[in-house]
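Hey team,

Filing this mostly as a record. A colleague (T.K.) asked me to run one chain through the structure pipeline before their review meeting, and I want the input and output archived in the tracker in case anyone asks later how it was produced. No errors, nothing strange. Just documentation.

Input sequence:
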Amino acid sequence: MNLRSLATIGILSFSFLTGCSSSSNSNEPQTIAISGLKYVLENGSEGTTNSEGVIPSASGNVQFYLGNAKIGPAVPANQDALFSALRGYFPTSQIELNATMFEFKYRGRGRGILEYSSDFYEDAANTYEVNRNRLSTLSNIMQLLLSFDSDKDPSNGIQLEASIHEIIDQADLEFAYYPYSLPEDVADNVKDLKLWLYAAHQQNLISNQALFSPEVALSWAATQLIPDFTVYALSQKNEYDSDNALSGSSTFEYGELGFLKTEYSDDSGTTHNNRRSSKTYNQYGHELTDTDYVREDGIDEWTIDETEVKTRNEHSWQTLEVDTFGGGTGTNRYVQEFNDAGGLTLFQTFNDDTLKYQVKNTYQSNLVYLKTRYTENFIDNLQTTIQSYNANGQITQNLYDIDSDNTANYYTTYTYTENGQRATQKGYTPVAFTYDPVTFEATISELNPTLEYEQTYTYDANENLISDIRSSTVDCRDDLECVNVSYTYNYTGELLTSYVEIQGGDNGYTVNTTQEFHENSYIVKKRTFEQDGLNAYTQIREYNIAGQNTLDNYDAVNDNGTHRLYTYSYNSDFFILQSREARSLSDIQTETYAGQTFTYDENNLLTNVLSDWDGDGIAESEYTLTYENGLLIEWIDYDIDPNTEEKTISGRETYSYTASNFNYASN
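Output structure:
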């Protein structure tokens, strides 16, 4: 068990706004301070919400929109409609909210429209996983709404100007998750967001182009939608050794916006803090400073060890970061420049005063989609990369010159279908080139460069990839493999089969996968056959109706036998109860299963884990978890003597909390 992962659980509840949240009078509508949000009734009539987010009652359902983007699900068209549509994303009880925050922070936390990683977003099975993903969805919705607030001031509610709806033209905007993206490699939806903010600012519909952090946005929603709930931030963590002596502690303090302001750490158990970390943020929830301090035992004064200072412009875009480390002996600087729409035009990294890396971008006329990118890497020897993009911001040409002698050691071109999907990728032998030092548009010196490989992609009528074939004009070799991949799908678009064949050098490699699905589209079985030269194996994985893995069966030598076996069982609420593993054929024959057993309380909070790692039926370790109103307050790790089965404590942690808000993500 990762102690750190247990330590910092969730947070919420601060007062951005008073007097505009849900009403205690059942005869009055429940309100949320969002005015100007568009709604469409079943009969086609439209309107916008008033200052309390209220609409006139009507028959049937209503759907809310920001431009063409749906906001929340369709709900009955009464005065409470907007409140109901958004309140449904929050858990229904205090205990459920407390328990959900662990899932939300560590397995599906809302990182927002610009930084949300699909790696954090998982298919949900049990209650807390479902809630985790709902909170992530809501944080993205509220981040969008707050960022288009006309005065960018949450304290007086969200006011959406009517013309905003003409700007946001993407009907299929997906709030459930966003693909990972960075300023130099933004996804299409992030490009659109920058375009929308730029257009709104140009028309004076918003005061600046700043994007509120997802934590601030979700915290504001909480004050409106769950004012009677509290989410707690960790305020104190104590660690104890096997003798139950204090071995370390951490204290957390939070600032006005609820972000972590200061963390004190005692690594020795002397109750004398020897490390301190302090952070500051602007009103949009973006970090400004991060300072680490140290001090020796018995010394009262703190010494600065490392600092990060970030400069931001009127749109809260970071233009400069200065990191000082080693007690002031070294400095890294990161310089960023932007065009008017927030497109990154320059990124530079300096170690002390020496330039180590830089990227220069030019853009299409919309100022957001890339046109060219010029990269210089000075870390080892000067390396240059020049990339060109089409009008949709998709890469069409890549030149990589590893020693900056104007000969591209790797030259690649790309084409796309009418729907914007990649159609071909071609690689060529080294070519000489020239480029314009202002526009970075490159010209290949050779009229007919020598083709080295070609990769083609084909799609079905539903735009699903059905084949990916890479062929070489020379022999398939280890550093230039030939690839043949094909896919089939069912009527709902789920992948049924995939076939991968790779040839390189003297080795051949094939992977053949088939999948079956439940009626609810969750996978039920996946069979993979893999062959690498003379070696082959088969893996069969089975899943329950919630998509959770229940069985892994490995046929390691492809003789139709089982050589490794893993099984998993769950309770009726889809929380794991047991994992078992037989790691060899001998273990299977002797029914020697290592694994873990999990126990939960009445709220499905994990209370006990027994671990038997050698498969002798006797647990070697155990840990227990104790909660108060759904908050973890104690974790104990036990070692178990295999002969006497006597338990001894090997470590313990205790936790206490303070009321704060969803800005826990700064922890």
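Quick notes for T.K.: The mean pLDDT is 85. The two ends are 19 Å apart (CA to CA).
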